[in-house]
Amino acid sequence: MLRFVKMQGCGNDFVVVNGIEQPFHPTPDQIRRLADRHFGVGCDQVLAVHASTTQGIDFEYRIYNADGQEVGQCGNGSRAIARFIYDQGLSNSVRLTVRTRTAQLHLERLDSGDVRVDMGRPSFLPPEIPLLMAERSAYELPLGDLGTVQFGVVNLGNPHAVIVVESVDLAAVGAIGQALQQRPEFPESVNVGFLQVVSPTAGRLRVYERGAGETLACGSGACAAFAVARRRGWMASSATIEMPGGPLTLGWQDPEAGITLGGPVETVFSGEWHWDG
Ligand SMILES: N[C@@H](CCC[C@H](N)C(=O)O)C(=O)O
Predict the structure, then answer these.
(1) How many angstroms is it from 45 CA to the middle of ligand 1?
(2) In this structure, are 134 and 238 located in the same domain?
(3) Handedness of CA 167, 80, 29, 32 (dihedral sign)
(4) Is residue 273 part of a domain?
(5) Residue 223: active-site member
(6) If you ran DSSP here, which 8-state letter would residue 123 be given?
(7) Is ipTM > 0.95 here?
(8) How does pLDDT run across 18-46, given as a tens digit for each residue?
(9) 193 and 251 fall within a common domain
(10) Which residue is closest in CA terms to ligand 1's atom 4?
(11) What is the pTM of this model?
(12) Is 74 noted as a catalytic residue in this protein?
C-alpha cells in the first residue's frame, strides 16, 4: 500500500509521495503503472520527498517521468513539493533548499501562499545540455518531411530545446517534439518547447516533454524558453508565459543569478495505491 497525494500546477500533474514516512524506491515499471491514466493514478511525473543527510539541504527531491525514468529537474514539481512539505507538517520554514539528482533549488513560500522557486543559472553550453554539436547562437537540424528546424538550447538541471514560432496554435508540437527527441545529437533526449513571443513581458508556450509527451505546463520549459528569449533580447527581466494549463511568472534580473519561477499549485486528492492490486 502506497500513500500518495495528487497535485497539479497549471495542469502539470503529479503523484507525490512522502518517502520519509514510508519506503519508496520504485522500479521504472512501478512508476509507469502509477502514472498510467487508465490502469493507475495518472500523472506527468511522480515526485518523492526524502530526508537529507547533507548540511544546508533540507530535503532530497526525486523526480520520475511517466515513462519510468528518473530525471534531475521539474520546476512545477518543486513548487508542488514545497506545498506538500508544508501540508504534511515536514517543515514550516518560509525558505527551503531541496536537492534533486542534478540540481539544488531554493524555494520560497510567498504571502499569497504560492511558492516561487529559484531554478539556478541556465547553461547554454552544448556539452552541458548535452548536445553533440559545436556551440553557436542558434542550431539547425533536418527532420525529414517536417523540414529543418532552428532552435536554441538550455540546461536547467535538465535538457531543453526551444523553437520560436509565429503561433503556438499552429505548431506541430507532437511530430517535431518526437523527431527532435530521437536525434542522436541529443544523447539524453530533450524537452522541446515551442515559444511564441507576444511582447517583451508576455509569451505563449507549449512543451513536448521528455518521458511524458505534451503536458499542460512545464516549469523548467518556461524558464528555458524565457532564457532563450531573454538572451536574444526579445524579453524583459520579468515576464508571464501562458501555457495551455495557465500562466507561469518568470524573473531573471541578473545573468549571474538564477531564474525564478512562480505560479499556482494545488492538492487535488489523496489516496492509497495497491502496488500489486
Ligand atoms: N514538468 C517539468 C519537467 C519534468 C521533467 C522533464 N520531462 C525531463 O525529462 O527533464 C517541469 O515543470 O519542469
Answers:
(1) 8
(2) yes
(3) negative
(4) no
(5) no
(6) B
(7) yes
(8) 999 999 999 999 999 999 999 999 999 99
(9) yes
(10) 74
(11) 0.97
(12) yes
